[in-house]
């Protein structure tokens, strides 16, 4: 009896294997798809909408800018604003355009081939800020060369938000873009009397995926405790920067951009994150074209990719002080400053050479210590 059962199972397995067929899905290369990227905030403009044509599937070519289109923005008061076509497929809002909290905006596009595209109306919600921010010392594992497990020593930066938000029709939703600026100073000896001082700074985003808050529309309270904003390594190597010889000073300046987003924006970034975080497991979401908030009104078969976002933003900044041997993380609120990459080099004299001191000027930027 047992032999018969085994024989039946083996026969069924062989039949199952023999009926296996490789599935080759039809892939739409999307070569003619219009790609729309744009953001309107509560800040002063001008704001930019960028239009490109999607590249072929698996292509390494950069997207082709779309020129000669006619773009307008309309609001819920029936006002219309015409955008100006600049280089590289960029269209900017006119001087008379000022966004207003509570108003809704719709993007209208007419391309040179006669196609007409339109977004859903997007409301500009009031800006929000987090309630508190703090750090927890931790080791962040990652795979190094030859798949060896290594650890970045640093801190998880956490925030508490929405404590004061009362029950409304829908709780607020936010996304965050933390940007770290690594500031470092090192010296190079010229001779026995003088040396070069080098001050450098490099800015970089800390999160690959969009950092969005959890959806609490079915909860009794909007408050979120311990939302992970980002991880900040202690050492320069953690940011992909080589450590210079004779390092003198090292600062970490963290800028936090908090966007208050509407439901359409939240759903778009949620779907994007699902696809970006897939690991090939059986229950992972299937990769597909992300549906934005734009459609082609004169030809439903025309594909349009991207998203027209209308979100308010608030800015804050902190300096972070941490060390490898100490679990403590010290943070101080400082002014928010936009800092692009840069470096300066100036000559200094060593102690004891007083007559020439006045010939050497300290070129340290005024914002270096963010005071």
Could you characterize the architecture of this molecule?
The chain folds into 2 domains: about 120 residues, Sandwich (Immunoglobulin-like); about 180 residues, no CATH class. The radius of gyration is 27 Å and the shape is globular. Strand 8 and strand 9 form a beta hairpin. The strands form 4 sheets. Strands 13, 14, 15, 17, 20, 21 and 22 form a 7-stranded antiparallel β-sheet that branches. Strands 1, 2, 3, 6, 7 and 19 form a 6-stranded mixed β-sheet that branches. Strands 4, 5, 8, 9, 10 and 18 form a 6-stranded antiparallel β-sheet that branches. It contains 2 helices and 22 strands. The chain is mostly beta strands and about 375 residues long.
Strand elements, count: 22
Strand content: 35-45%
Radius of gyration: 27 Å
Number of helices: 2
Which sequence of SSEs, written as H and E, runs from N to C?
HEEEEEEEEEEEEEEEEEHEEEEE
Instruction: Count the domains.
Output: 2
Tell me about the biggest sheet?
7 strands, antiparallel
Q: Would you tell me the structural class of the helices and strands?
A: mainly beta
DSSP helix fraction: under 10%
Question: Which shape, going by the Cα principal axes?
Answer: globular
Quaternary structure? single chain
The low-confidence parts are 280-287
Q: What is the average of the pLDDT values?
A: 84
Q: Give the N-terminus to C-terminus distance in angstroms.
A: 85 Å
């Amino acid at each position: 009896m047992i032999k018969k059962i085994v024989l039946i199972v083996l026969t069924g397995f062989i039949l199952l294997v023999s009926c296996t067929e490789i599935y080759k899905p039809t892939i739409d290369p999307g070569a003619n798809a219009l790609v729309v990227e744009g953001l309107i905030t509560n800040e002063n403009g001008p704001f930019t909408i960028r239009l490109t044509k999607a590249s072929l599937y698996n292509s390494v070519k950069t997207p082709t800018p779309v020129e000669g289109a006619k773009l307008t923005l309309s609001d819920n008061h029936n006002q219309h604003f015409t955008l100006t076509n600049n280089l590289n497929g960029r269209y900017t809002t006119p001087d008379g355009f000022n966004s207003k909290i509570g108003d809704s905006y719709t993007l209208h596009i007419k391309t040179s081939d006669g196609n007409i595209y339109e977004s859903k109306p997007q409301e500009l919600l009031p800006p929000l800020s987090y309630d508190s921010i703090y750090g927890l010392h931790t080791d962040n594992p990652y795979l190094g060369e030859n798949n060896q497990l290594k650890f970045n020593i640093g801190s998880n930066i956490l925030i508490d938000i929405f404590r004061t938000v009362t029950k409304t029709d829908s709780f607020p939703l936010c996304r965050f873009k933390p940007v770290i600026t690594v500031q470092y100073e090192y010296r190079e000896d010229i001779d026995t009397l003088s040396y070069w001082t080098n001050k450098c700074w490099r800015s970089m985003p800390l999160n690959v995926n969009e950092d969005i808050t959890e959806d609490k529309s079915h909860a009794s309270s909007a408050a979120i405790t311990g939302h992970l904003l980002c991880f900040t390594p202690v050492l320069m190597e953690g940011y992909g920067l080589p450590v210079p010889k004779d390092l003198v000073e090292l600062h970490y300046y963290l800028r936090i951009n908090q966007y208050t987003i509407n439901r359409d924006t939240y759903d778009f970034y949620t779907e994007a994150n699902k696809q970006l975080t897939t690991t090939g497991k059986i229950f992972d979401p299937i990769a597909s074209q992300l549906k934005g908030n734009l459609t082609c009104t004169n030809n439903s078969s025309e594909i349009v990719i991207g998203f027209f976002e209308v979100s308010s933003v608030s800015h804050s900044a902190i300096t972070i002080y941490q060390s490898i041997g100490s679990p403590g993380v010290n943070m101080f609120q400082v002014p928010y400053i936009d800092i692009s990459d840069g470096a300066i080099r100036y000559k200094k004299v060593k102690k004891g050479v007083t007559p020439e001191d006045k010939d050497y000027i300290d070129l340290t930027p005024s914002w270096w210590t963010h005071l």
